[in-house]
Amino acid sequence: MKKLIILFAVVLGFSITASAQDNQKPEFKFNEEKHDFGKVPKGKPVTTVFEYTNVGVEPLILTEVRPTCGCTIADYTKTPVKKGDKGTISITYNAAVAAPFSKTIVVTSNAKTPVKNLIISGEVVENAAATR
Q1: Which residues pair with 129 in a beta bridge?
Q2: CB of 125 within 8 A of CB of 41?
């Protein structure tokens, strides 16, 4: 019985320690996670900036920001973002085909939620139609 109590105490101690460490992890809070460009002219790049705040305790480090399409380019804050500070992810989309679009950008980090998906959407139109 004594061994069982000791084993239980050890397991409980490990779980409390793991839980406390998880509470220290950084975490994103985005102003928006989806951006609609509306109608954009074919062949003319459009850019949006996703701004986020680290609402966790430890510094937030983005390890990868990967667009799922070759027509999308990402640039992002590469230095650690301290608690309460802001970072940005700039997304530029350039389409060669007139059609509606929805693209996902996969953000990988050391956050409590290690993978986040950002979405851009809109409709690419012929140049003359976009100016109306």
Answers
A1: none
A2: yes
**Rounded to an integer, what distance in angstroms lies between the CA atom of residue 48 and that of residue 72?**
11
- Residue 61 CB contacts under 8 Å (≥ 6 apart), including other chains: 26, 80, 81, 109, 110
Question: Torsion angle, CA of 4/10/11/12, rounded to 10 degrees?
Answer: 110
pLDDT for res 24: 84
Per-residue pLDDT at 21 exceeds 70: no
Q: What is the mean pLDDT of the chain?
A: 87
CA pair distance 31, 68, nearest whole angstrom: 22
Residue written as tokens 């608690």?
83
Is residue 4's pLDDT more than 80? no
